[in-house]
Write a structure and sequence with these properties.
By secondary structure, the protein is of the alpha/beta class. The protein is about 45% helix and about 10% strand. The radius of gyration is 24 Å and the shape is globular.
Length: about 500
């Protein structure tokens, strides 16, 4: 493809003329399923080359090369015939592929990917134009395939401004930093129990790739990751992302990590490393809370995921988890479960470091201030370091046009292996607390070394509106959660 960098722009320009596409969210979802089929077709050609007995799970007429590829003979489907094929043959066939427990993962992912996928385009001529642009991609060319892996990242970044889809994307600078600090090793397994588009999985693989020296190493590399994603659209994006990064058998499942009893997990269900940005601000139903011990059962999604992580981290394992400020600060009666989770974390794990992140890291998706908790399943916590990462010089806030970059974490990396307490303007920037201070003196309040003052942020009008909308959703969910817990307490007192 002569101009790979214009790929997304070309598709966007074509799809803007289609009456069935309404906004970036639908546009990206439309691109996603077509890209998946194109990438999967390239993988199948490799698998057929390596194994003469390989048989595709996709019906022959539905394979990319037989309906989407235009051989320039004038016979390629277009217009109403193409729309009819896509809507009445392709989608029904892929949604109902015969899959059972014996079906290999690399085949089941097709049916799972299309389970809830949609074709939004209504103009068959425009759909043909989009297919032709995608078909120009040559995934048999290593250089082009690798380059497109980077281009794919621009599609994922676009999710941040595509309505609620932004919740599935963690900025690459953050995932890369966490993977770098966690120091992957060949032979280890890493999990993300709400993996979204696969950002943490890919950052882990990129770090691990540097250690691959032999065929045995390559096998361990491909088998090192495990992911679960509840929603179909990010699951599709994740599978495509991993196929692009050389993982032929992605161990990623379209499922809900919160619907299994945490006490049922065995050693086989545990992992050496967990890297996660759990969904937060959600309000889970009562039947979900039944899968957790009473003292850890909360309706707040992030709290439940923290329990899952603790129950699924191997002895000796390492974790890096993004959590909102409310997790650190919750100490009162309405946050009893948060305190219990922190008690378990400090008593059974070594919470050695908390990095406080600037408030606009996830802008414009959410204004909620977040933190990265680093802990190991080695021994109880004895001391915890806090480090506040301030905005880099020249930045008032991060945004779509000025996103966070990996280089902005350099102050943390410089401090990480040479830790010392720091102050700026008389306010702690880096400080060490003993577990006795955190528990006995501070009452499990981990909100330390925070930002001493609010800096004014000047946002674009649409970003500002979006921020207010997301903040309102978060606050409404938090109010509902607290009211539910208070109601439960009052009912218990009345009985």
């Amino acid at each position: 493809m002569s101009n790979l960098t214009s790929f997304v722009k070309r598709l966007r320009n074509i799809m803007r003329n289609d009456a069935g596409i309404n906004g970036d969210a639908q546009r990206i979802e439309q691109i996603a399923w077509m890209l998946f089929l194109k990438v999967y077709d390239a993988k199948e050609q490799d698998w057929e080359w390596d194994d003469a007995n390989y048989r595709s799970i996709i019906p022959e007429k539905c394979r990319w090369q037989n309906w989407a590829h235009d051989d320039k003979s004038g016979t390629a489907l277009t217009g109403d015939k193409l729309l009819n094929f896509v809507n009445n043959t392709l989608f029904p066939s892929l949604k109902k592929l015969p899959v059972d427990a014996s079906t290999p993962i690399k085949k089941t992912i097709v049916q799972t990917t299309f389970a809830d996928a949609n074709n939004y385009m209504k103009d068959g001529v425009l759909l043909r134009q989009v297919l032709n642009v995608i078909d120009e991609l040559d995934f048999s060319d290593y250089a082009e395939s690798h380059a497109f892996g980077e281009i794919y990242e621009t599609i994922l970044k676009a999710l941040q401004s595509a309505g609620s889809a932004g919740e599935f994307y963690t900025p690459r600078a953050v995932t890369d930093f966490m993977a770098q600090v966690i120091k992957p090793k060949i032979g280890e397994t890493m999990a993300d129990f709400a993996c979204g588009t696969g950002g943490f999985l890919v950052s882990w693989l990129n770090q691990l790739q540097k250690q691959v020296k032999t065929t045995a190493d390559a096998d361990k590399y491909s088998n090192s990751i495990y992911g679960i994603e509840k929603k179909q659209f990010p699951y599709m994006l994740c599978i495509t992302n991993l196929l692009l990064h050389g993982v032929d058998v992605p161990r990623v499942y379209h499922d809900n990590s919160l619907t299994r009893d945490v006490l049922d997990y065995t050693d086989e269900d545990r992992f050496d490393v967990v890297l996660m940005n759990p969904p937060y601000g959600g309000d889970e139903k009562a039947d979900v809370k039944k899968h957790f011990p009473d003292d850890l059962a909360n309706s707040e999604t992030a709290d439940l995921f923290m329990s899952v992580i603790m129950y699924r981290l191997k002895k000796g394992g390492r974790a890096a988890v993004i959590l909102p400020d409310v997790f650190l600060s919750g100490t009162d009666n309405a946050n009893t479960v948060k305190v219990n989770i922190k008690k378990k974390l400090l008593r059974e794990f070594d919470l050695h470091t908390i990095i406080r992140l600037p408030g606009s890291v996830f802008s414009p998706y959410t204004p909620i201030t977040t933190n990265i908790l680093f802990f190991d399943n080695t021994h109880p916590t004895t001391e915890t370091w806090f480090y506040r990462l301030d905005m880099p010089e020249g930045y008032k806030h991060f945004s779509k046009t000025k996103p966070m970059k990996l280089e902005h974490f350099q102050p943390v990396l410089d401090w990480w292996d040479n830790r010392q307490e720091l102050e700026e303007d008389g306010v702690p920037k880096a400080k060490k607390f003993t577990v006795q201070q955190l528990t006995e003196k501070l009452g499990y309040n981990l909100d330390q070394c925070g930002y001493p003052y609010e800096k004014e942020e000047i946002l674009e009008p649409l970003d500002l509106i979006h921020r207010y909308e997301e903040q309102r959703v978060y606050l409404n969910a938090e109010i509902d959660r607290v009211l539910t817990e208070i109601t439960a307490i009052l009912k218990g007192a009345a009985q």
